[in-house]
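Good day; I would like, with your permission, to put a structural problem before you. What I wish to show you is a protein chain and, alongside it, a tokenised description of its three-dimensional fold. Thank you for your consideration; the sequence and its tokens are set out here:
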Amino acid sequence: MKTYPKVWFLRHGETEWNAEGRVQGQTQSVLSARGVQHARQQAELMAPILTLNPPCFVSPLKRTRQTADIALAGRAYETDDRLKEVFAGAWEGQLRADIYNDLPQGITPDSPHIEFYSAAPGGEGFERFQARVRDFVATLTEPTVIVAHGLSGQLLRAELCGLSRAEMGGLTNRQGCVYVLEDGIETVLELDNAV
């Protein structure tokens, strides 16, 4: 398996659209009050890590920049388009409950999220999505902090851990924690009083 430098990965906090059950993809949505609390939890976890002065990369979408501004305590970061969430085509902004009424063949409400979103009509699709995230991962040369999304995070974490597409679909997409990826192993940092 290829080796990569250590990565601290943060998924953005809960957004208003997460709470409503809407598909976000690359559409802008803002953090909910609970999402701001998720980012504050991440800030507590990140404080000792940031003393190491790692480079920080963030998806340019509003919800990830809001999270990074809080979780990285105002520290400078670089945005990178390759970290954006999957483009969900015709499904962006729609309620998942409505989408469930007319799903593409082979996709069910119980399909792993990575497969569900990759099947969106007019969307980015799995292969192009994976290629851009892999392209970003290939640029990592030193221990790095990354703030991105649930699904781009699954792709990134799977790449760093050498997981298959099927294994990737089983990864968690938690908010308010920090995923630490080192030597092909993922551990999760969290607070005892997490919301």
